[in-house]
Amino acid sequence: DPDQFVGDTKREILDIQKQRTALVIREVEETLDTLEDEYRKRMLPSLFRIVQSEPTFERLCADAEVDQLSDFPVLKTFLSHYREIQRVHFLLPLVSFTNLVMERANFSVSRSATTTIKDFVEEQTDESFVMRSFEAFQKAWNEVRPSVSSYECHPLPEGYSTLSLSSSLLLCCLDSQDSGLQVMAMIEALCDKQNDFLDKFLQLAGSNGASIPSIRFLSGGDGAAISTVEVQSASDRVIIGEEGIGTSNLLDELIGFSHHDWRYGYGKKTKRNWEKMERHIVQFALCDKMLLSYHKDKVKKFVFEGEVFSSSEYMVDRVKDAVPQEPLSSEVRNALTNSIVIREHQQHLLNCVSAMMFVVSNKKWTAEDASESLWNVLQENVPVSYQATLQMMTKTPLGSTSVKLQHLVGVYEAIEDIGFETIFDTLWHHRVEFQEALSEDLIQAVLASLEHLRVEGMRVAFRRFIMRYLAPSPDVTADQCLLYRLQIEGLWPSGSVLGGMPLDDTVETHFPAGACFKHALRIYKLLDDHVIAQTRDTAVSRTKEHPGTRRPGQRSAAKQPRRGRY
C-alpha cells in the first residue's frame, strides 16, 4: 500500500531525527558537566551552549503569539484550532466499520439482540480483515467518546467511554435512538470540527485571500473553493489528518521547521521558519479537503430486523418509482396463498422481501430490469444474512421464473396477507394494551371518516399498520397517536380516498385525532365487521335480484363470522 509506505517512512524519519537530536544534546550536557563554569565561559564561549529542552506545541504557540504571524494567517488559524481538529482523522475508522456492519448485518439484528462484537467478527469469512477494521474503530471510539457527552441537547448514556470485543454490536449500528445514537454523535461532532475549521479558512480566503501567498498557492490564483461530500462516502484524502499519522505527527513536522540560533545567549533562542510551516499546513490540512455533509435524517442508518418500513415509511411508493410494478396473476397469488412453506415461515419471508424492497428502492434500474426474474434479482442483491431464507424460497413459487421484479410489491402484499389472522390472534391474546374498548364517540368518529375514506382501504391500512408496527415492535407505547402513522401513504392501497383531496390531508381532516395505538386492534375489528356487513348486504341484494343463485365458493351471509364487541 503506497500510502501506508509513505506514512511508515515519515514516522521512521521523525524517530531518527529525534534520536540524533537527543544524542547530541546528551553528549553536550555530559561534556559540560565535567567542566567548571568559569573555564567553560572563558575558554569555550562559542563551541558549547546550553541547549533548551525539546520543543513543544505550547512553546510553538507561545512563539506564534510573540511574532503575531500577521503574514501567515493560515498557520495562525491552524494553531488556534489545533485542539479542536486533532481527532478528526478518527472519522474514517468510525465510518468504515459502521458501514461494514451495515453491509453485513442489516435487517438481521433486532433491537433486543445480545450479539457481541466478538460474535459478529467470528461469523465473518474474512475474520482477519474485519478484526483490523474493528481495532481501528475501537481506537477511534476510545479516543473520541470521552469528549462527546451529548447529542442534540440530550445527554448520552454514561459508562461507554471504552469499547471492547465483549461490547454489544448494537453500539456499532448507526441509529437515531438507543445504543446506535452514540456513534452518530461522535461522527457528527468530528464532522462539525472539520467543517468549522474549513469555514474559518473560507472566511479568511474571502476577506483577503488574494494577498496571502499560501492561499494563492492552494487555489492556483483563482480563488479558494471547497466542495462538499457525504461523510459515509468520504475517503482519507478529504479528511484532515492522514490515516495512521494524524495531527500529532504533523506537530512534530512543524517543530522540525525550527532550529536553535547560536548567536543569542547560550542557544536559548529558537528561530521558526513560519513560511515553511504555513506551506506545510496548506498541503496537509487544506489540499483536497472537503466540507462533510452529515444530516441525521439523510444518513444511511442501520435497519433492524422487522423495522424496514418504520425506517423508510414510503417504501412501497419508492419501489414503484424505482421499478414500474404490475399486479400478480391470480394463479401466482393463489399459489403463494396455498404454499405451506410460506405459511410456516411467513415472518422470515416477509422480512426478506422487505429487505429486498429496501435495496430496490435505493438503486437505479432500467426498463429491462422490470422483466428480470425476481429470483435472480434476490440472489444478486439480498443481504448476506438472508441466504438461508433464500434457500427456503426455492420450495415456493418465488423460486420460479414466472415471478418478475415488476411483481415485487404484489409478492410483498400477498405474503403480508398470509397468516395475518394468526398474528392478529397472537396480539389479541398477548398484547392487551392494544385492545382498549372504544368509546361510543370514538366509534362514531371512525365510522364518520368512512364517508371520505373507503372502508376496504382503511382496513388494509390497519392490517399493514399492525403487521409493520405492532407485531415486530415490542417496545411501542400504547398512547402513541394513530393519526401520524395513518398518514403514511405506503399503508394504503390505491383508490382509498373518496374525492380528490390528498391522502394525508384526508386522514388528518377526517380520522379521529383521539385514536391511539391502544385502540388499534378494536378499530380493526370494527372495520372488519363493517366490511362483512357490506358483503352481506351486497349478497342479500343480489339474492333478491336473482333468487336461488350464489357465487361459487360464497358462504351464506348468515354464516359470516363476527369478531365480537369493540
Concise structural overview:
The protein is mostly helical and 566 residues long. The protein has 25 helices and six strands.
Annotation keywords:
mainly alpha, 25 helices, 6 strands, disordered C terminus
Q: Please, could you describe this protein's structure?
A:
- With 566 residues, this protein is mainly alpha-helical.
- The protein is 54% helix and 3% strand.
- It is built from 25 helices and six strands.
- The chain has helices spanning 2-33, 37-43, 57-67, 73-85, 91-105, 117-122, 127-144, 181-208, 213-219, 246-256, 274-286, 308-311, 315-322, 330-337, 340-344, 346-361, 374-381, 387-393, 408-417, 420-430, 440-449, 455-470, 482-486, 503-510, 520-545; strands at residues 150-151, 154-155, 228-230, 258-260, 270-272, 291-293.
- The protein has a two-stranded antiparallel ribbon with strand order 1-2. A two-stranded parallel ribbon has the order 3-6. The chain has a two-stranded antiparallel ribbon with strand order 4-5.
- Strand 1 (150-151) and strand 2 form a beta hairpin.
- The longest helix has 32 residues, at 2-33.
- The protein is elongated.
- The relative contact order is 0.08.
- The model is unreliable at 45-52, 219-224, 243-247, 261-267 and 549-564 (pLDDT under 50).
What is the topology?
Layout lengths: L1 H32 L3 H7 L13 H11 L5 H13 L5 H15 L11 H6 L4 H18 L5 E2 L2 E2 L25 H28 L4 H7 L8 E3 L15 H11 L1 E3 L9 E3 L1 H13 L4 E3 L14 H4 L3 H8 L7 H8 L2 H5 L1 H16 L12 H8 L5 H7 L14 H10 L2 H11 L9 H10 L5 H16 L11 H5 L16 H8 L9 H26 L21
Parallel strand pairs: 3-6
Antiparallel strand pairs: 1-2, 4-5
